[in-house]
From TrEMBL:
<feature type="signal peptide">
    <location>
        <begin position="1"/>
        <end position="21"/>
    </location>
</feature>
<dbReference type="InterPro" id="IPR000914">
    <property type="entry name" value="SBP_5_dom"/>
</dbReference>
<protein>
    <submittedName>
        <fullName>Peptide/nickel transport system substrate-binding protein</fullName>
    </submittedName>
</protein>
<dbReference type="GO" id="GO:1904680">
    <property type="term" value="F:peptide transmembrane transporter activity"/>
</dbReference>
<feature type="domain" description="Solute-binding protein family 5">
    <location>
        <begin position="131"/>
        <end position="515"/>
    </location>
</feature>
<feature type="region of interest" description="Disordered">
    <location>
        <begin position="25"/>
        <end position="69"/>
    </location>
</feature>
<keyword id="KW-0732">Signal</keyword>
<dbReference type="GO" id="GO:0015833">
    <property type="term" value="P:peptide transport"/>
</dbReference>
<dbReference type="InterPro" id="IPR039424">
    <property type="entry name" value="SBP_5"/>
</dbReference>
<dbReference type="Pfam" id="PF00496">
    <property type="entry name" value="SBP_bac_5"/>
</dbReference>
<dbReference type="GO" id="GO:0042597">
    <property type="term" value="C:periplasmic space"/>
</dbReference>
<dbReference type="GO" id="GO:0043190">
    <property type="term" value="C:ATP-binding cassette (ABC) transporter complex"/>
</dbReference>
């Protein structure tokens, strides 16, 4: 199959409308449509069919393309999320759950659903299908593709999802009483929390059913990544039959060996790829090689039963964000998602027709989070949190760092809805009175003095190097030091892996990358949330999230979001800053690169990227 390219000018198609928010969208709770639409290619075309016929598509197409019967072409395409090294085949623990790690593992482990470019949910029919078979109780039937196998030849079966239920079951614990913690170190426990009994179905079969104890807002995407049960059974020494029986019985003591392997057995050291024996793939790519500090190369999975990947190798480079534009120019990278800055955009535009630039809005938002751990100066001092919020120059940050890229950019005053969404102003009006819109140095200084605190070091931690965040911290320091704080730039190369979990920060500066999930914010703001890194706790917020997540009614969602936003402002969980402007740039000879507003980034359809002539 021969590929041809259009000019870079023809590549710039209109972006899809954004209809869902990062954590709690106002869209429908139930979307059972499958994603079969052909998308707009990054170069304005999608190739399909053995003869290489071109398919011209409309900008409203948002799912993955049906490329027809294609052959994988030789060669490689390179991409980078950032400089963070790969850390685990298991991306579903709090320590490994990141866009950096998922860029690799999501190419290797398939799921029943994915988010299109607009945040809508599409069924991944090459992997399997699901359907709601009952409303009361809520029951969902899953059917795995009959041909689905792990790359070691083992069939993908219900066993993988029975184990997943056990992994995400908060009732399977180690320790007793107040010391009890989930046995499996999973990033979320919604599956076990929402579904009281293990999936029903033949362990070795391709069908299974789950029954919820009450309605659940995000039921279509509850089942995400499932690691290979046969590997856990073997590596833990339990054997499949004993392990599955222990999961169904919620037998923590018996499952201890399985949990020990699941929690850490897939973690890696730079340059040492896990063998296919313990890290098989059931996606379009599998591991090939790892050059520590440089890149991981994935190759087409020869056991993949679906549409073959368009290109034989996908190279994920570990490259610092400030090197991406130069690497794109040099050909060391073919697809980049640089942090949107004025300098970056000017540099990209200077490369002319050799690249294609895609710009649109993003479901990713920047924020400052307070640390509520005991040792933090902000933990028991709402006055100091208020003082800090009053001295952070939010408008200046947006004016200087974001508006030159997006003239329509505004200071963001919500977390669960975005300024470009229809319900945004209604939510803000119900939750926030505007008191932190402008710097109030007089009041901030007064609150600092009244606190009586003398050690007011404020370490602002973020993943470094990151030029825009470094500038943000510098602007905050210039303002907040005047109020009596001592702001310290605590950017660290391993902020998320080491610094943040240890609590060695007063304020965290980072972004949540959104998707079409309705209730995912519960994991961030609820007292029991696995992503509640600052240990924030608020009974009203907890109750509102519990109500929202256990409903499929959009009106309930909208009502609870207002409560959540109001309480997060009143207790000052943190300070929202702005929605990220999105930029994707790629070599003009790469087809089918498609920017997306959701957390998967441009790499979401990397198996469709192809080099053209």
């Amino acid at each position: 199959m021969k590929y041809t390219k259009l000019s870079a000018a023809a590549a710039l198609l209109a972006s899809s409308a954004l209809v869902l928010s990062a954590c709690a969208p106002g869209g429908p709770a139930e979307n059972e449509e499958s994603g079969t639409a052909a998308p707009e290619g990054g170069n304005g075309e999608v190739m399909t069919g053995e003869a290489g016929n071109k398919l011209t598509v409309e900008p409203t197409d948002t799912g993955k393309a049906d490329l027809g019967e294609i052959e994988t072409q030789d060669g490689s395409i390179s991409y980078s999320v950032g400089e963070d090294e790969f850390i685990s085949y298991n991306s579903m623990t709090p320590e490994t759950y990141s866009t950096y790690n998922s860029a690799i593992t999501e190419r290797m482990i398939s799921t029943f659903a994915y988010f299109g470019t607009d945040g809508e949910i599409y069924q991944n029919e090459e992997y399997g299908t699901y359907e709601k078979i009952s409303d009361d109780p809520l029951q969902v039937k899953y059917t795995i593709n009959e041909d689905a196998v792990w790359s070691d030849g083992t069939p993908v079966t219900a066993a993988d999802y029975i184990l997943k239920w056990g992994v995400e079951n908060p009732r399977i614990t180690s320790g007793e009483g107040e010391e009890a913690t989930p046995l499996f170190n999973a990033i979320a426990h919604e599956f076990g929390l929402r579904v009281p009994d293990a999936p029903e179905g033949d362990v070795d079969g391709k069908e299974f059913t789950i029954t919820f104890d009450e309605p659940y807002a995000d039921w279509p995407i509850l089942l995400d990544t499932a690691q290979p049960a046969h590997v856990v059974a073997e590596q833990s020494g339990m054997g499949m039959e004993a392990m599955i029986e222990a999961v169904k019985n919620e037998d923590a003591e018996a499952l201890a060996p399985a949990a020990e392997f699941w929690n850490t057995g897939w973690n890696t050291s730079p340059g040492e790829l896990p063998s296919e024996e313990i890290a098989p793939s059931n996606g379009p790519y599998k591991f090939k090689s790892w050059e520590p500090g440089q890149s991981i190369t994935l190759e087409a999975n020869d056991q993949w039963w679906g549409t073959p990947p368009a290109t034989q190798e996908l190279v994920i480079r570990f490259a610092a964000a400030d090197t991406h534009v130069q690497a794109l120019q040099n050909g060391d990278l073919n697809v980049i998602e640089p942090q949107a800055t004025v300098d970056t955009l000017e540099q990209l535009e200077g490369l002319g027709d050799q690249i294609v630039i895609q710009q649109d809005a993003s479901l990713t938002w920047e924020h400052l989070d307070f640390n509520f751990m005991e040792e933090s100066i902000f933990s028991d001092s709402p006055e100091l949190r208020e003082a800090f919020a009053l001295c952070v120059p939010r408008q200046n940050i947006v004016d200087n760092l974001i508006k030159p890229l997006d003239p329509e950019a505004v200071v963001m005053n919500a977390r669960e809805v975005f300024p470009f969404q229809e319900s945004y102003q209604e939510v803000v009006d119900a939750a926030y009175d505007g008191q932190y819109d402008e710097v109030d140095m007089e009041r901030a200084t007064q609150l600092v003095e009244e606190s009586g605190e003398t050690n007011l070091d404020v370490r602002i931690g973020y993943s470094a190097p990151n030029p825009r965040r470094a500038e943000t911290v510098a602007m905050i320091k210039s303002s907040c030091d005047e109020a009596g704080f001592n702001v310290i730039d605590a950017g660290h190369a391993d902020f998320f892996g080491v610094v943040q979990p240890q609590g060695d920060w007063e304020v965290a500066l980072f972004a949540w990358a959104g998707s079409g999930q309705i209730a995912s914010g519960r994991n961030i703001y609820h007292s029991e949330g696995a992503q509640n890194y600052g240990e924030f706790s608020n009974e009203e917020v907890d109750a509102a999230w519990d109500t929202l997540s256990s409903s499929v009614d959009p009106e309930v969602h909208a009502e609870q979001v207002k409560i959540i936003e109001r309480e997060l402002w009143e207790s000052l969980h943190g300070i929202p800053l702005y929605a990220h402007p999105g930029i994707v740039a790629h070599s003009a000879d790469i087809a089918n690169v498609r920017n997306t507003a959701t957390q998967s980034g441009a790499v979401w359809n990397a198996e469709q990227w192809a080099r053209v002539e």
